[in-house]
Every structure is written in C-alpha cells, then in structure tokens.
Backbone:
C-alpha cells in the first residue's frame, strides 16, 4: 500500500487491490440469483471479495487507533487485527464445522510465521544484505508462540495417554481440559498486552511509530472510520456466510480436501492484506514492523482467537476442544521451532526467508496429500460420524446437521 | 529467609517457616497412636513437616560447604542439594512404587525450571524492568538439561519401536538400555561438576559468592552443622516413610491420581525451601543465583538422582527403567524447550516468568485430568498388573507386594 | 594431517593413515580368491580400506578446487565432499537395500554433528578455554539442518495420519510426497550454495581461507589431481561393492543389526577422513573450519545426497521414499536440536563437546539394542516382507531379490 497524497473525501483512499471489491456485488448475485448459482464460483468469488474488505477493516481500525491514542489504540489494533478471520471462524463454528475452524486456525498461525514472514524476509533480503530487529522483542514473541504451541499440543497428548487407561478418554474430560487451557492462554494474552503495550512498550515502539508514519492518508474522522468499519464488517460477515456455505460443494468439485482448504486456502485469504503490508515494510527496511505484523498476528490467533472460539462454542451449545490432528500439531510445532531459531539473533537475510517459505511449501505438500478424514467422507452417506480416535476426533456435538461436526 | 543478626547459640537461627516444625511431633503421633490414625491427615502433616526439615538440611549443607572450602564445599552442595528428594524417592523405590518415583522425578524437574524459576523471574521482574545473568552459564546449563531430556526420551522411543518387531520388546532389554543410559548421564554429571566447579568456575562464581554472602548467621561449627544435618536427615527419613506409606489411602480420599500426587504435590513439597531462596535472590537482583538454584537443581535431579535411583533399584533387586509415560516425557521435553528459549539471551523480565508459570499450570491441568493408570486401579482387586504397553509400563519386578510395582 | 614440507613428485604426499591402503589389495584377494572368502573379514577390511581412499578423494577434490578458483572450487568441494558416502549409498540402493541406505543417511547426519563436532569441540576445548566462531554462519547452518530434519519428519507424519483414514495410506502417495519434498530440499540446497558461496561468502570466508592455507603440499597439477581422483573413486566403488555385498553375512556373524551397521558403522567409516581434519582444525583454534566441515557435511547429506538418492531410485526403477523409522527420526531431530542450542551463541568449550558425544553414545545405545526389523529376519525364510506399518516400512519395490528391499 503505497503512500498517497493528502486528499479529502473518499476519492483518494482506494488502494491497488481494491478493484477486487467488484467481487462483492458479483458474489451477492451468484448467491441469490438461482440461475447463476454455482458453489465453486461462489467460493472463489467470495474468497477474492474478502481480501480487500479485510484490508478496509484493517485501515479503519488503524485510523480509529490513531484517534484513540497510543495505549487504547494499540489495544484496538491488537484485538481486532484478525477480526476478519474471527468472523469467518465464528460463522463456521455456528454451523458446527469445527474441523474447518481448527484447520483455519492452524493455517493462520503457520501462514503468518512462515508465508508472510518468509516472503517479507526474502523481499527485504533481496534489497538489503542484512536486516536487524529488536532481539528481545522478537525472542519474547517467539516464546509466547511456543507457549501457545504447548497449549495446542497438550490436549492431544491427553487423548493419546488416556486412551490407554481403562477409565479411558471421555469427550467431557477433553472439553474441560481444553476450556481450562483456553483460559490460561487467554490470560497469558492479556499479560502479553500489558507487557507489549505498557510496561515494555519501548521494545516494540519502533514498530508502532513506523506503522503510524506510513498512514499518509488524511486522518479519517471518527464517524468516517466507524462507518467504514461497520460497512466492511457487515460485508465480511455476508461473505463469510457465503464462503462457508459453499465450501463443501466447492472443494469436492475442485478435488481438494477439507483440511487443505482450511489450512492453506482460507488462511491465505484471511491474511492477504497483512501479507502485502509486511512485505512492504521489509522492503523499507522496517523489519521490526514486518516481524511485528507476522508474529503478532500468529500470537493473536493462538492466544486470543482460539480461546475466544472455545468460549463461543459453549455459547453455541456445541463445545469445541483444542484437540488438533497430528498433522496440524506437527505443522504448528515445527513452524514455531523454525521461527524461534530464525528470530533469535535479531537479524535476518534472504536465505532465512527462503527457509521459512520452504517449510511452508513442505507443510502444504503434506496437507495436499492427506486423504479426507472419515467423518467427512461418510457425510453424504448419512452414516454416523466415525468413532473418535486420537487423531480423528469425531463429532463433539449431538447435531445431526448434514455437514458433520468435528 | 531474611538476613539475621549475628547471634550465638541456637536461639537466633530459626527462620519464618520453621513453625511448621511443629508438624513433626504431630506426624509421629498420627502415625503411632492408633486412635488418631488418619492417612489423609498424616499425608498432609508429614508433607508440611518436610518443608522446614529440607530447609535445615540445606542450611547445614551450606555451612559445611563454607567450612570445607570452595571446591569441596560446592561439591557437597551440588551432591546433597536434593538430598530430601533423594531420600523420599529411595523410600518409595524400596516399596516398589516406581510409578511414584518417576512421577516425582518428573515433577521435580519441571517444578524447578517452571515453578521456581517462573516465580523468581516474575518476582524479580516486578521490581526490575530487566534482569541479566551470565549467558554462557545459562546456555550450557540448558543444554545439559536437553541432554538429560534426551536420555529420558530414548527408552520410550525404544519401547515404541521394538514393540513393532517380531522379536518384540523385552523388559530385560529395556532395563539394560536404561542402565547404560543412566551410566552415560551420571558420567556427564561428573563432567558437569568438573566444568562448573573447576575449569570454568568463573562463569558461575557470581552465584557462588552471592550465596555465601547471604549467610549472615554466625558460621556454625563443624560439630553443630553435622549434628543438625544428621538430625534433619533422620527426621526426613521418618517423614518420607510416613508420607510414602500413607500416599495410597490419602490420595484416594482426596480424589487425586497417583501421577498428580507424584508430579505436582511431592515435587512442590520437596522444592519448597529452594523455592523461597530463589525468589529472594531474584528480588535482590541476584539472578545468576536464582537461575543457578532452579536450573542446577533440575540438572541434579535428571543427571544425578535419576541415575542413582536406577543403580539403587538394582541393589534393591527390583530394576527400574528410565521409561517414562508419554505425559511425563511431553512435560519434561516441553519444559526444557521453553527454558532453553527463555534463558538463551542472558536476560529476563516479568512476562517470561508469567510464561513459565503458564506452562506449569497447563501441565498441572494435564496431570489433573489424566485418569488413573490401570495397574493402580486394579490393585484393590488383586488383579495382575495390566500387560506392559509403551505408555503404561507394567510391573518391572516379580514382587507380589500389595502395592503394585510399575 | 600434519603440514608437510614442500616436496615434488609422489613421495612426500602420503599421510599417517595411508598405511591402511594396504587393505585395498587384501580386500581384492579376500573377494576373489575362493579359498580365502570370508565375508566378515571382507567387511572389516574393505571398511578400513575406504578410510584412506575417502581421504585421497577429499584431497584431490581440494586441489582441484584450488585450481578452479574460489567460486567453482568451493562448489566442487560442496558437491563432492561426500562423494564416498554417495557412492556407497548408490551401490546399496542399486541392490534394493533401501533400509541400509536410510540407516547410513541417518548415521552420516548424526555422526557429523555429534561425533565429529563433539570430538572437535572436546579436543579444542582441552587446549583452549573458550573458542569462538561466526555466530551468523553457525545459526543459519543450524536452521538449514532444522529444515532438513523437518523434511525427513513429514513423510512419517503423513503415514501415521493417513493410516487412520479409510482412504488409508498408499505407497504411491508416500512416494509422490517424498519426491516433492526431495525437490524442495534440493532447491533449498542450491539456494544455500548461492548464499554461502556468493551473496554472503564473507560469513564463511574464515573457513575457506584457513582451509586452503593448510594445504602445504605443492599444488598438484590438474592432471595429477584428476588422475588421483579417478583412481580413488574407482577403488571406492569397488570397495563399496565388496562392503555392501558382504554386509548381510558379516553382521549376522558379528551379531549386529542392519540398522546398527548402517547408522553407526557405515557412517563412521565414511566420515573418518573428515573427522580427523575437523579435530585438527579445532586444535589449531580454527573453529569456523571444524564447524564448517561437520555441519556442512551433514547439510550436504540431508539436502543434497538424500534427494539425489531419491531421484536415483526412480532411475533404478525402485522408488525410495523419505520415510524413516521412528528411532531414525528421533535421532536426527534430537541431534539437530542439541546442535542448534550449542552453536547458537558463537562460542564453545570442552563440556559442549562432551555433551555432543554423550548424545551420540545414547543414540548408539538405542540402535544397539533395537531388534532386527521383521523384513530382514524373515529374509532367510523367504517369507514375504511384513506388511507395511508406519515405523517399519515394508518393501517399496516388487523385487524378489534374496536381499529384501525396504
């Protein structure tokens, strides 16, 4: 998003990617005009439509933050930075698609710290021989990610271990354990906010200041910012509903598995706006900012969005656990491992960007080849979901919806 | 333990926690007076009694060390720092309770590097924005911990892998493998002592000097130190016998599993004295010392106490292996991973303390929800212990004691 | 290999270990004279013969590199540094012994970063209290190793996860996945070469310059270097054929498993020449060089030799996957973990050398106790190889050769 000259009104605030906004009316048409109803096309069009809308939500949030002042503003940014992904996930959760939800959580986490960060380091590294960033800030962000990874590993460890006991594994125990861990992660996120926004703000200030300096638009009035935010949010909500409603038919026709769609496709869509910002910042040698965007976004997903989804699932009456599949756990753990190594010394180069992207490609290859989980395959046969096993958690609900819950 | 003015005799040497010593006679009463026999109460009272006794053992050891001179003294400290835990474990081992032994080994390791270190970093971090410590010393301690974690992981890898072979897994192979690994760990500990007490003493001297400076009591005479040490050790031995003898009944009534009691409760009791010292040192910005206490104690458990227990088990005629359950291995590996990250840059802050405590809470949640292993459940039915499986090692002995061996 | 005075001709270029060259004619005799045919002896003698031959290949390559100039020369070194191991592995692959191939890949990786590097750090640390090396170069090499470890872990994760799906696991999917990952690793190796030989050459120059300075022989003419290289390569090819042909009978008589022979013995033989060079460099305080030899060799095995072997297996008509057994994966992952920790701060001491050697000994203990995999045991009974399982991949080919494929 290049700097723009200071203009008033609405005409000067459109960005390069915004032509994709044309996809919005097209998606409404595809959805409501029966003659044109085509799930695969609807899936693709709504996916494209979400990209600029997420960008607008982000910009509106930033303008509101600038108005709200440093502390509250950063808090706004930190909480609603992933609002688009949260909306998509809540929509899927309300339909009981916990499998897609977890897959997209995984995808957002690894997408941010591998794809976004890797592309940033590679882009910046092509221009600068060596880029540096605040080592302490990077290290403690990476440690928070490790903590999150631990929180996402333990529920499956519990399932594996208790499967072998006569008392066995019960869904209720798994849900209670997950809820307790979600609370711990959420509390840790609050402490993280206190640390990064208040007590040790200086470690991250480089990022903050640079971020605000990039906004060369005329500052939006509160009315303008709130209006745009509400409009964008509403449209994203509609797009999410269309997207989630068409995912089943679309992926079958495209020959992709539910897991691949969740981990790779949904995550890339949701992160596209941040992706371009992070790469731009790296090209301007503002590495603290690109690292902050990428790792900060992953942190928010793992320590804020995931717990919130667990809490929300209880409100929806269909408790979701934090039990992920083995490939998802391996993906998150290995990604966090690599990122911790790369960010630990406060400097980066183009090869480290290549390494992050290589890991992402390897994980994408894994998710591409994984066959469809049983409970999804049997959906069309209206069979009961397959019995729960450690790596293929069955329905966590009593729903008999045509789309099986996981 | 605040500094006390220099007084002679015995009157000035009591510390705040010492009122718990009243629990000692109470425990004797509960144990031997039939009318008052109450296992749950006995378990709690002896647990409380061990706390100040362990503190006295530590202080006596430190005074003897001061008398013995730098090298031999540090060696004394390094070897007998965990004498209380060693005694409790030997007591449990003699009764064939290898499950409790391994659980308490796990609990001591993770308790020191997560609970003690986390509380220290948090306490110190509330007072100081940033605390530093010798990076080289911290890193090589963390690497030794990783080596120990590897030594505790491999026996279970062996079991998993050989289960799938026709030749299969045999208890004898597991015991030989464990004994060989125990020897390697023990030898590594000796090299660690040579490194930290002789060839690279300077890296750790900060800790040593500070430790001795804290002792503002009048130096105890050798007679006084040895007497107190012997008395405290004898009492700890009795307390251990009561504790271990009442653990079964007590935990059933408290509704806790054997694993939870071993990993969380026994470990917290045994480490309480060190815990308060480490927190005090952090509050005085002597971070090298608190790190040295916490990580050094974990190292001693993993590289000295664990091998010694393996050797001792052969003397007792009931060889114990180093095969831990999956949750125990996950707990140790993940703890060592987090500590390595946090201590790698030579500085810490309050959030890193929170992160360590969060991991501890998550692991405690895991051990809280884990159901009772089969061999313990079936004890009261006098059934044969469940057949050995990789994550639930059955009896390693031929003992037909009412308390099943693991 | 001590520096030698500048002499012309051939007489001055023999090195201490070269008396082992006597093993070459002996091995020919043992192989072709029926009366003397003894597989165990042949195995041992050819093993000893390879050691000096690999050294000669290395020296010839270095002289050619010096002639070819900095860039192309380093490229030569980087590609053919492990030519001996590549030849042995190709020989085994052509006979369908994919189990031995993978075991020796594992052994080369862990042998270089644990045994060679550990011995170097220990030797250097006995002489120097503290040795330093370029931290950035060491860290990015370690990260490349982590990437390689991830590439070797994912195929087994795939197998474990897809086993539980109704669609199940198919050898074809595993082969396609492995081929795709091999391509990614190979491309990453090319980028690594661009980084270490061109764009960021300076980080590694210490190693380069020092390496060339050590060659105090008169520079060999191109004719001489090429002649020696061809002769040594031919002899290594013959030795490999004898070695691989006799491994079955020899190990049975020596009572060793195929895995132990592959992981420990074959790897030690192949790395012996580099081993002595690395230790020598450490004793001369040229730590960048010893680290470069050890870690660089592991990198080459994991990111170049392994993918090349996968490609070659397709040419041989017997596709090999990158699916390793659990112990092999654990060994590689844990080794890379420890090396990443130790090399991350740019300095080392004797204890870190001891730690690396300890991990190697623990892993050797593991591989020593592991029982023979099913498919090897049943070979003599001419039974069909055991059905494929995640940790014991069965035959990947349709070959009915007497030596079972894995």
Residues:
């Amino acid at each position: 998003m290049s700097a723009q000259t200071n203009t008033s009104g609405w005409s000067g605030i459109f960005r390069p990617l915004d032509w994709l906004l044309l996809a919005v009316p097209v998606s409404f048409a595809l959805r409501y005009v029966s003659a044109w109803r085509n799930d695969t096309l609807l899936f693709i069009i709504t996916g494209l439509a979400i990209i600029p809308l997420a960008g607008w939500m982000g910009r509106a949030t930033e303008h509101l933050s600038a108005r709200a002042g440093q502390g509250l503003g950063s808090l706004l940014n930190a909480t609603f930075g992933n609002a688009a992904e949260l909306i998509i996930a809540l929509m899927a959760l309300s339909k009981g698609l916990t499998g897609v939800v977890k897959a997209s959580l995984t995808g957002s986490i690894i997408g941010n710290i591998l794809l976004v960060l890797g592309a940033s380091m590679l882009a910046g590294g092509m221009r600068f021989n060596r880029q540096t960033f605040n080592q302490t800030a990077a290290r403690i962000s990476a440690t928070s990610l490790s903590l999150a990874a631990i929180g996402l590993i333990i529920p499956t460890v519990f399932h594996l271990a208790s499967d072998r006991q006569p008392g066995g594994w019960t869904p209720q125990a798994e849900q209670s354990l997950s809820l307790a861990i979600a609370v711990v992660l959420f509390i840790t996120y609050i402490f993280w906010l206190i640390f990064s926004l208040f007590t040790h703000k200086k470690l991250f200030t480089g990022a903050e200041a640079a971020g605000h300096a990039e906004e060369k638009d005329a500052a939006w009035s509160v009315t303008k910012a709130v209006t745009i935010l509400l409009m964008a949010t509403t449209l994203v909500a509609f797009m999410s509903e269309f997207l989630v409603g068409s995912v089943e038919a679309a992926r079958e026709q495209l020959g992709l598995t539910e897991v691949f769609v969740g981990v790779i496709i949904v995550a890339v869509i949701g992160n596209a706006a941040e992706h371009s910002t992070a790469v731009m910042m790296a090209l301007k040698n503002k590495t603290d900012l690109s690292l902050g965007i990428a790792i900060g976004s992953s942190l928010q997903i793992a320590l804020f969005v995931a717990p919130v989804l667990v809490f929300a699932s209880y409100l929806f009456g269909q408790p979701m656990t934090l039990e992920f599949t083995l490939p998802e756990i391996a993906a998150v753990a290995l990604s966090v491992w690599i990122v911790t190594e790369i960010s630990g010394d406060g400097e980066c180069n183009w090869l480290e960007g290549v390494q992050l992207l290589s890991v992402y490609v390897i994980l994408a290859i894994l998710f591409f080849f994984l066959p469809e989980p049983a409970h999804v395959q049997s959906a069309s046969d209206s069979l009961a979901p397959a019995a729960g096993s450690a790596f293929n958690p069955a329905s966590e609900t009593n729903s008999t919806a045509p789309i099986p819950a996981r």
In short: Chain C has a mean pLDDT of 81. Chain C has one domain: 16-371.
